[in-house]
Amino acid sequence: MAAVDASSSPPAAITCRAAVAWGPGQPLVMEQVEVAPPGPMEIRVKVVCTSVCRSDVSAWQSKAQPDLFPRIFGHEASGVVESVGEGATEFQVGDHVLTVFIGECKSCKHCISGKSNMCQKLGLERRGVMHSDQKTRFSVKGKPVYHYCAVSSFSEYTVVHSGCAVKVGPTVPMDRVCLLSCGVSAGLGAAWNVANVSKGSSVAIFGLGTVGLSVAQGAKLRGVSKIIGIDTNPEKQEKGKAFGVTDFINPDELNEPVQQCDKNDVYRMFFSCLQIIKRITDGGADYSFECVGDTGVVSTALQSCSDGWGVTVTLGVPKAKPEVSAHYAFLLSGRTLKGSLFGGWRPKSDLPSLVDKYADKEIQVDGLVTHDIQFNDINKALDLMLENKCLRCVIHMTLLDN
Ligand SMILES: NC(=O)c1ccc[n+]([C@@H]2O[C@H](COP(=O)([O-])OP(=O)(O)OC[C@H]3O[C@@H](n4cnc5c(N)ncnc54)[C@H](O)[C@@H]3O)[C@@H](O)[C@H]2O)c1
Ligand SMILES: [Zn+2]
Ligand SMILES: [Zn+2]
């Protein structure tokens, strides 16, 4: 447990437990880390729960940034404000908060545009440091430990910019609402804000993890009539139904004869999947969504949507090959390819209303939690993700009752 020096003011450093990744894909090691006090406009948060998102796992496995280790991952989290840095007057000690991986400063060009959540000051942080001073707030035995997305919630305490936290009411369950901090909001927002799906339309969703199922939920709530889920994991068929999926396709289990195909096996697999989507939707889905994290699937999603007005939204974060290739004719024929982070939501302005919808039972979150896991066992959650045997694992920082 954390040792806090309560007598000093301003707040002192805290020593607490954090799950540290010492190298790409290496099991996390529980370490005693020192967490610096919050700097100006920052808050220090006692993490209550953090769920594990596919983006954490992909970044942890990636060898692309070997210099950013040791590192503390985690970004989908709920917690309680433990101390407040100079000027962070929006928060008080004891406030319940959600952390967010893209912040909202409310003063930059994007924040005041009202049409973007790509804050220029607190946007997606990729260098493992804090936005304000490009330094870390964590250390192990004097050695700096890098952050992830300026959140790093796989730690009992973390420091975030006050623009990267959103207050929530004291009664919402912290062990479930943490999913609104990333995956669920990203999916709902992709359907509602980015694609703006319409009643009676058709959608094709590639990948039925938490993100894809949340797109399905968003589509269902808008009255979309055909919600086609495509996933290589057969277990996602039943899960999909619970979130509104009307038609399920497993590309690995297709018996459709491939009409014309001279490409590789993956292309063949998706080619016959495309035939089915086109048949179900009379020529192509009105909207398609890539929720896998594979740029090859982005091309397939674009091919699956309709000429003239089809919109493809890509949400996945690719593990490899970042370039998307698409025949220009798909664009000339009137299709649109776009993407979004965090479903286009501006966290401070928009997230509280989503939390209210959850509290009012207008949106489903609890059904996406497949495992509740103690912090000590966090590597189990990573294994479950790697084995594709979970939706969200919620990590509880304090001991669960057995
Ligand atoms: N844009 C954002 O704001 C945002 C937010 C959260 C997550 N993400 C990204 O979205 C993606 C999905 O996240 P998640 O947490 O739901 O992941 P997940 O791993 O839980 O779900 C991915 C699903 O895709 C399926 N799949 C894998 N390969 C497939 C293929 N070739 N064809 C069809 N289905 C396939 C898997 O079986 C799984 O059900 C990840 O890339 C993640 O990094 C983006
Ligand atoms: Zn901004
Ligand atoms: Zn995420």
TrEMBL record:
Boundaries of every Alcohol dehydrogenase-like N-terminal domain copy: 39-167
Catalytic activity from the UniProt record: a primary alcohol + NAD(+) = an aldehyde + NADH + H(+); a secondary alcohol + NAD(+) = a ketone + NADH + H(+)
A molecular function GO annotation: S-(hydroxymethyl)glutathione dehydrogenase [NAD(P)+] activity
Localization (cell): Cytoplasm
Major subcellular site: cytoplasm
Signal peptide: none
Pfam families xrefs: ADH_N, ADH_zinc_N
Keyword entries, A-Z: Metal-binding, NAD, Oxidoreductase, Zinc
Domain Alcohol dehydrogenase-like C-terminal: 211-357
Coiled coil: none
Subunit structure: Homodimer.
InterPro entries: ADH-like_C, ADH-like_N, ADH_Zn_CS, GroES-like_sf, NAD(P)-bd_dom_sf
UniProt protein name: Alcohol dehydrogenase-like 6
Family the UniProt entry places it in: Belongs to the zinc-containing alcohol dehydrogenase family. Class-III subfamily.
GO process annotations (BP): formaldehyde catabolic process
Any one GO cellular component localisation term in the record: cytosol
